[in-house]
Write the structure tokens for this entry.
Amino acid sequence: MTNSAPIKDVAHKDIRRDLLMIAEMVAPQSRLLDVGCGDGSLLEYLAHEKQVDGRGIEIRQSGVNACVARGLSVIQGDADTDLPDYPDAAFDYVVLSLTLQATRNPRKVLHEMLRIGRRAIVSFPNFAYWRVRLQLMFGGRMPMTAALDDPWYETQNIHLCTIQDFDELCARDGFIVEQRIAVDGHGNRNGWKLQGAAANWFGAQAVYVLHRR
Amino acid sequence: MSAALPPLSSHDPVGPGHRVTLGETLPLKLDCGLDLGPYQIAYTTYGHLNAEKSNAILICHALTMDQHVANTHPVTGKPGWWLTAVGPGKIIDTDRFFVICANVLGGCMGSSGPAETDPATGKPYGLRFPVITIRDMVNAQAMLLDHLGIHQLFCVIGGSMGGMQVLQWAASYPERVFSAIPIACAAKHSAQNIAFHEVGRQAIYADPQWHQGDYFDHDTIPRAGLAVARMAAHITYLSEAALHRKFGRNLQNRERITYGFETEFQVESYLLHQGSSFVERFDANSYLYITRAMDYFDLAAQAGGNLANAFQGTKTRFCVVSFTSDWLFPTSESKEIVRALNAAAANVSFVEIETDKGHDAFLLDEPVMFATLKGFLDGCAEQRGLNGSQT
């Protein structure tokens, strides 16, 4: 049909850039659990583009209803409380995008993700990003950036960390970092390859692919 | 297969639809240990079965409903109980799907139950009808599907006791259920719900017209007892907010309270009407049997105490639905089902619908529920390859 291409384009445009980056890391026809799946755009994208057998957990009921109405398999739930219900190695990937910092027990959540999934894909805002550092150092206030866009009294983010912090936790708890991507404030990772301390300075967000030892 | 309904006959109390005798060669093995056979199942169908026999949806009805889902009820003359959801172009689209609904075993709209004639005595069974369970109801429906030549259902859907049957279907016949939608139900009947049922049963036993279940011999029915049972149960189907919105403390046909025991409040009048209209269409002994079947329901107990075991290895796609103001089958019960399905690595969706209309919300026009069901059914239809034949 002549009108199928434009529809596909719309689907591409709708997906957030950080989700597209995650989608690129996922193998076709795999089984995936998206924790905090929102309105289901990643799941829908993966189902159509990579024939991924996806499931979702979303805390907001309005998000869940939107997902199920789109034909996605999504339940209302919470990363902190509902992951223990899943059996070991039930999924190829468990995705947690920009949600880790809002969980009550991020370390436990990471362990659960790697128990129920062979791989975990985690993204989070980097609190050592240079704009964050400068705002705190010279502004004397809690930083607000594109990735951290709520004032301190309204934010859900209770466990913010830096890329260096996260690397240290992975080393301590035996998570193997298979892939690590830091993106700058514009969501680009192509300008320069962010590594080591540079990543911690210039990465606004980080995406990790982890697996167990 | 053409499913044209025979014309409604005023002489046939079962109304439109069909009635089939099953279990003639192989009886139905009941949970209570007895064999039942032959037995009758009365059912309705809507729409057409496709050539692959892959578009059948079984609707399981609740405690006091029957098979008249989308046609005028032969006794009350009222519209079918789920006309909001079932029909051409509706959520359960009879232009696309072949829809079946059977009166449950133990019911009183044409399927074998305590009001039907016992072939051994030529008199109504009464309490001589064997005690049945949700699993017995489902096994009887499975034999009906065998009779219709349908191996796999595209979907089994139902609310309340209908949802219990949906869960039992998925547990007993996983390969025959492509998708399952249990609405406003639980994997077990709670102590509180058994307690409410016992109040209803005691009201029936206490009616002198009940005659130990042999009221037909005395040419009477236990009107008062069954009406009280219905009134008590009906309160549990609503919510405090819904009752308040509908009636508040409004007085019935009077300006001020009269310090007496006539019907003072509108809510009293409403309940009395619910009770008195119910006894015209429902058999008191059927009410005893079906409430008992619900009380016995405990899917985890069937699976060695672990609900997840009931769904181990299932390929069925589930959509579990609950309502925020349902205190008869609260969301926590649905979440227990969802947890067990997750533990069995099943394909499950779960939505809790925000409404103040209580348990009965599943029968009403709830746009969010309908959007959810439509999305789920469309997704399943795509998986099942049912969309290709659509124009």
Summary: Confidence is low (pLDDT under 50) at residues 1-12 of chain B. Chain B touches chain A at residues 317, 319-320, 338-339, 342-345, 347-354, 368, 371-372, 374-376, 378-380, 382 (CB under 8 Å).
